[in-house]
Amino acid sequence: MMMRRLVVIACACLALAAGAQATEFSADEVASFQGDRESGRLYVKSPAVTRSESMGMITINKYPFIYQLFEDTKRYVVTNVEESSSGASGELRPWESGDFQSWVAAQGLTEQGAEKIQGFDTRIYQGEVVLEAGLPPMPIKVWYAQRLDYPVRHEVTVPANAHMGLGVETVTVQLENIEIGPQPDQLFELPDGYTEVASLHEAMGLSEMLPGMFDDGSGPSAEQMEEMLRQLQQMLQDGGGHP
């Protein structure tokens, strides 16, 4: 689940890094990690307005707000990117710049060559970025298509975490079946039937799954985390619903 969250966060943050003249398009968004492939959809209206659908989660970026909606709980949580960058929220560490090239410069990425992907000429950038508060910088490699003003592929190397049972893992996200054209406005509005909640764990339904774990605001203990992971793994095996 942590790996899946990092995939979603990486996609959301890269969406915010797109430039000021991005082309409207939609695409399949395919994430590969831990031997699995997860396919979702990406819709780009403008640099500051995007929508992704993956792993039972809808992410709508309307800068400076990120809306994370969970289909199984019918709940969503809102993150203000500008407040997050000042430390008000540890869920996401957003990009600071307003366009891709400024983001590349701010992150200290270096250009490493060029490659054609999915029929688009790309420039390759490489370096290290912070994708989530509290985690160390992670190596990243980005294939940027100037025609789209958007990355069509990126790879993030996630460090090992012995407590979570994770080794070093490379997460790859690539766009496929890219279709350039106008995107409907309603895709980027909140759908009916969802309720706003205060935190990500509440939106995911973890408060009901493990009662009392988050009541004092300190978060789960090591034993509680292991139990949460066990239940999440079982939930995924059962098809994504609540246990």
TrEMBL record:
It comes from Thioalkalicoccus limnaeus. Keywords: Signal. Residues 1-22 form the signal peptide. The lineage of its organism: Bacteria, Pseudomonadati, Pseudomonadota, Gammaproteobacteria, Chromatiales. This is DUF4412 domain-containing protein.
